[in-house]
Amino acid sequence: MKAKTVDGLVSTKQAGEMIGVSPQTIRNWIHAGRLTGFRVGPQRFRLDAEELPKAVEVIQKGYTR
Question: If we measure between CA atoms, which residue out of 12, 40, 5 comes closest to residue 28?
Answer without folding.
Answer: 12
